[in-house]
C-alpha cells in the first residue's frame, strides 16, 4: 500500500514539476504575428465593446420572436466570419444596468461598431438597444474563434 501511494505521489510531483517548467518558459516574440494582429509593443490593441440592453419593443408572438433571435444569431455568425466580431455572448443573469449581452468588435471606431450593431435584426426590431465603449485588450483575442469551432458540436 505504501509503495502505491509513494508511486502516485512521485508521479503527481513529476507532472506538477513539468507543468511549472512549461509555464516558466517564455514564448518567443513573433513580430510577424504581432503585426498581422495590429498589436502594439504590449501585445494589445483597441477594440469597441457594445453592451446590448433591453430595448423598448417587446414581442409577445413566440414565432416572431424566434425569427428575430434566429436573425440575431445568424448576423453574429456573419460578422464573426467577416472578422468584425471577436466575442459575443449573453449575460447569464439579470443586472441593474439591464445588460443582455455584449459584442467585442474588432475596431477602435465607435462609429464603425455602431454601423455593425445596427445590422442586427434584434436591434432593428427594438428588442435590444445598446451602449458603446472603447476598450483595450490583447491583440490575440481574435485567435480564439478558430479554436471555438473545434470545441463546439452545434451552433445555436
Automatic annotation (TrEMBL):
**Which InterPro entries does the protein's record reference?**
Dimeric_a/b-barrel, YCII
Task: Tell me if Metal-binding is a UniProt keyword of this record.
Answer: no
User: Signal sequence: where?
Assistant: 1-19
Domain YCII-related, by residue range, is 63-135
Tell me, what's a Pfam family for it? Answer: YCII
Which keywords does UniProt give here? Signal
Name the family the entry cites.
Belongs to the YciI family.
Protein name according to UniProt: YciI family protein
**Source organism:** Chryseobacterium herbae
Amino acid at each position: 500500500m505504501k509503495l502505491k501511494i509513494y508511486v502516485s505521489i512521485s508521479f503527481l510531483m513529476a507532472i506538477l514539476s513539468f507543468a511549472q517548467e512549461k509555464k516558466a518558459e517564455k514564448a518567443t516574440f513573433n513580430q510577424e504575428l504581432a503585426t498581422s494582429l495590429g498589436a502594439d509593443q504590449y501585445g494589445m490593441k483597441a477594440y469597441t465593446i457594445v453592451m446590448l440592453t433591453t430595448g423598448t419593443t417587446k414581442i409577445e408572438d413566440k414565432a416572431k420572436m424566434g425569427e428575430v433571435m434566429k436573425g440575431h444569431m445568424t448576423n453574429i455568425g456573419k460578422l464573426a466570419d467577416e472578422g468584425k466580431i471577436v466575442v459575443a455572448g449573453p449575460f447569464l443573469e439579470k443586472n441593474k444596468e439591464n445588460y443582455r449581452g455584449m459584442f467585442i468588435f474588432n475596431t477602435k471606431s465607435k462609429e464603425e461598431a455602431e454601423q455593425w450593431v445596427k445590422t442586427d435584426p434584434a436591434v432593428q426590431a427594438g428588442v435590444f438597444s445598446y451602449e458603446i465603449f472603447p476598450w483595450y485588450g490583447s491583440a490575440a483575442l481574435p485567435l480564439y474563434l478558430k479554436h471555438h469551432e473545434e470545441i463546439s458540436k452545434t451552433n445555436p
